[in-house]
Amino acid sequence: MPSLKTRDMALGRLAKAAKRTPHFTAPRWLRAVGRHKRLVLASAAALAIGGGGVWAWHAGKVADAQAFLAAKSRAAVVGAQVLSGLVVNEVTVEGRTETAGPEILKALAVNRGDLLLEFDADAARARIEQIGWIRSAMVSRRLPDRIHVEVTERIPFALWQNGGRLALIDREGDVITDRGPGQFSSLPMVVGADAAPHAGAVIDMLALVPALHARVRAAVRVGARRWDIHFDNGVVAKLPEEGAAAAWSRLAELDASYRILDRAVQIVDLRLGDRLVLRLEAPSPPKPPGVKPKAPARPA
After folding, report:
1. Which of 169, 167, 182, 130 is closest to 151 using CA atoms?
2. What is the pLDDT of residues 92-116, one digit of tens each?
3. C-alpha span between 244 and 206 (Å, rounded)
4. Per-residue pLDDT tens for 174-203?
5. Could you give the 3-state DSSP secondary structure of residue 237?
6. How far apart are the C-alpha atoms of 124 and 97, rounded to whole Å?
7. Is the dihedral of CA 218, 158, 127, 107 positive or negative?
8. Gap between the Cα atoms of 228 and 219, Å rounded
9. Most buried among 90, 114, 255, 264, using CB within 10 Å?
């Protein structure tokens, strides 16, 4: 058993150590947990069960506040643009010849007074390029109040007849308009469901012989593989699937030597490389015997 002196010395050392150890003071909210532990746990349970409505109410208020601030900010931005004159006041178009002005304005989808900086130039360009006459377009905002449009139009190349409908097409076979040829009615015509994308090739081939090309009325696509050429006097030249250009040149030589296109010929078949087949016109039916032609009527 320790002596009284030894025990007093140990108690003294503990007292000194207690003085050197800093005293930790819990924050008030943490101390409340300690003093009111049961109350806090009960409140937590109540929130877990029915506190969703309270949170939703607070969240709704926050959303309303955010919407209010966004509206105020939006109004400030709009007001600043209006005061600065950054609103659409003019639209200029460059490169337009055949395209109707109202079509471009409709595709722009903009009105006088709209905010210039909020105009979507890329979306407007995509809409303008859907117009038949337009090959490509550029749309830009010109500060402070102008929208500028630059267009490149398609060049009419031929008329395309398909299923009884007539359309104006460019060299690539893209339809420009189907509202009637108008001033382009003298362009060469191609006929057939798949004739449009092949129009450039066949018309270029026909143009190699200007004397015959001038007499062509239409090029008709047959079986998605070859062409029948219809002339202005009703004669039809059947070109082969392979070697069409050579057959076309051969027809030009034969016509120059024998004028076969001006004879009583209905079809000139060039599909056989080593020979030419001609189908003559059907003779007129003979008149019944004893029938006299009618005398011309006398003028009154």
Report:
1. 130
2. 999 999 999 999 999 999 999 999 9
3. 10
4. 999 998 888 999 999 999 999 999 999 999
5. strand
6. 19
7. negative
8. 6
9. 255
In whole angstroms, what is the distance from residue 227 CA to residue 225 CA?
A: 7
Same domain assignment for residues 136 and 180: no
Number of domains in the chain: 2
Please give the DSSP secondary-structure letter assigned to residue 256. Answer: H
Residue with structure tokens 């798949």?
194
- Largest Cα separation within the chain, whole Å, is 172
How far is CA 226 from its chain centroid?
32
143 in the same domain as 229: no
Residue 147 CA to residue 85 CA, distance in Å, equals 14
- Domain membership of residue 22 (yes or no) is no
> Which of 136, 153, 170 finishes a domain?
153
Q: 129 and 233 share a domain?
A: no
Where residue 263 sits, what CATH number does that domain have? 3.40.50.11690
Element (H, E) at 79: helix 52-84
CATH number at residue 131: 3.10.20.310
Q: Is residue 68 part of a domain?
A: no
Q: Which residues contact 208 (CB under 8 A, 6 or more apart)?
A: 245, 248, 249
pTM above 0.70, yes or no: no
